Structure formats: structure tokens, C-alpha cells
């Protein structure tokens, strides 16, 4: 079958999730950068892999998957250790809920394509207000959802699916968007815990092959 291939961009939070999953599973993979700022996503060869022109994309032999959630669930099915979903049905549902909040309620509203559109329509101050509102609304929902079931990580003391989606979003809040995390102590605690895990640290944007020398 050969080595897995991951088409990724250093700053993409969607690709960041998949990098965590691959590292947690102990899987060796080839990192193929798709530099979004240079328009690599519009290259005809890449569009054959992902007609949507987005990252990440995973190639596993003849299998091509283009959505981060689908990629992660594929990896969990094919490589079940360590599992990314708890056996407890309530905790499993909470993992799905947290994942959905990030995947549907936050990330799509602060991605690069939307940023570029907003820059044509509104000024920088209004753009910052938009981003802050989107993230804080999502973080408020996550804080309320997870405060009663959290341990060291989102649903206890084991890393599960929700953590793979939370970690990139919280990392970006701290390092890219300068979100005030004081109202979200549970999420801030997760961030500290993630920073202690090599699999998470290896996956952060600053540690990727295509990370610019000056950020």
C-alpha cells in the first residue's frame, strides 16, 4: 500500500486535527504541503485529488479522503488503537457534540476564504470583531458543554475525538487571534494539558515543514 500521504497546510486547523490523529496512532506519513497563500489548492493536479481545493487530503493507496472528520474516522476504524471514541455512550455523544461545534459552528466562519471575502467588504476592525464573536460564541457553548464531564482532557483523562478538534481551535485562539481565555477556564486547562503531549506538540502549525521562517 505504501506510505500514507497527507496534503496539508501548516496553518490549517482542519489539517492540524489530522496531524494529531496520525501521530497519536503512530502512523508514518508523507507530508505534502499545499501552500494556500500561493494558490496551490487551485493547481489542476491537486484538484484531481480534491475537487473542492481544500486541505487536508489523505491518500492511502487507492483511497482518497478529503474531509478532516472523515479522515480521522477512517484512521480510527483502520487503526483502532488508541481508540478515539470512549465506550461510554454519553461521553461518546459529548465528543460528537464538541466536534460539531468546532467543525460547524466555529471553523467555517473564520477560514481563509471567508477572511479574504470579508477583507473586500469590511475594514480590519470589523473583521476582528467578526472573528472574535464567532470564536467566543463557540467557546461559550463548549465551556458549558464540557465543564461537567472534563478531566485532564475534554471527556476525562484520556484523549478522544473532541480533543483533536479542540486543540487546534484553542491553539489558534491563543496564538493567532488573541482571544481572552479568562471566561473559558476549562478550555484553557485543556490547552495546558495538550501542550504536555508530544503528539499534540508535533502537530502544531509552528512545527510543520511548510511553516514560514517568520510568522
From TrEMBL:
Its EC number is 2.5.1.18. Residues 2-83 form the GST N-terminal domain. One of its GO terms (molecular function) is maleylacetoacetate isomerase activity. It comes from the Eukaryota. The keyword Transferase applies. It catalyses: RX + glutathione = an S-substituted glutathione + a halide anion + H(+). Residues 88-213 form the GST C-terminal domain. Pfam families: GST_C_3 (PF14497), GST_N_2 (PF13409). One of its GO terms (biological process) is L-phenylalanine catabolic process. GO terms for cellular component: cytoplasm. It is an enzyme of class 2 (transferase). Keywords: Detoxification, Transferase. Belongs to the GST superfamily. Zeta family. This is glutathione transferase. It comes from Arabidopsis lyrata subsp. lyrata. The lineage of its organism: Eukaryota, Viridiplantae, Streptophyta, Embryophyta, Tracheophyta.
Amino acid at each position: 500500500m505504501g506510505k500514507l500521504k497527507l496534503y496539508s497546510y501548516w496553518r490549517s486547523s482542519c489539517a492540524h486535527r489530522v496531524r494529531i490523529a496520525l501521530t497519536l496512532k503512530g502512523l508514518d506519513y508523507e507530508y505534502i504541503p499545499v501552500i494556500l497563500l500561493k494558490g496551490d489548492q487551485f493547481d489542476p493536479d491537486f484538484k484531481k485529488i480534491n475537487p473542492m481545493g481544500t486541505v487536508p487530503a489523505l491518500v492511502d493507496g487507492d483511497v482518497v479522503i478529503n474531509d478532516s472528520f472523515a479522515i480521522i474516522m477512517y484512521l480510527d476504524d483502520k487503526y483502532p488503537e488508541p481508540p478515539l471514541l470512549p465506550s461510554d455512550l454519553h461521553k461518546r455523544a459529548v465528543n460528537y457534540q464538541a466536534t460539531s461545534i468546532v467543525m460547524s459552528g466555529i471553523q467555517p466562519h473564520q477560514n481563509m476564504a471567508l477572511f479574504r471575502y470579508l477583507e473586500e467588504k469590511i475594514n480590519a476592525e470589523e473583521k476582528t470583531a467578526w472573528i472574535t464573536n464567532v470564536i467566543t460564541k463557540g467557546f461559550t457553548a463548549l465551556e458549558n458543554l464540557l465543564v461537567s464531564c472534563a478531566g485532564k482532557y475534554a471527556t476525562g483523562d484520556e484523549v478522544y475525538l473532541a480533543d483533536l478538534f479542540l486543540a487546534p481551535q484553542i491553539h489558534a485562539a491563543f496564538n493567532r487571534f488573541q482571544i481572552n481565555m479568562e471566561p473559558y477556564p476549562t478550555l484553557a486547562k485543556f490547552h495546558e494539558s495538550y501542550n504536555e503531549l508530544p503528539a499534540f506538540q508535533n502537530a502544531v502549525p509552528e512545527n510543520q515543514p511548510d511553516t514560514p521562517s517568520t510568522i
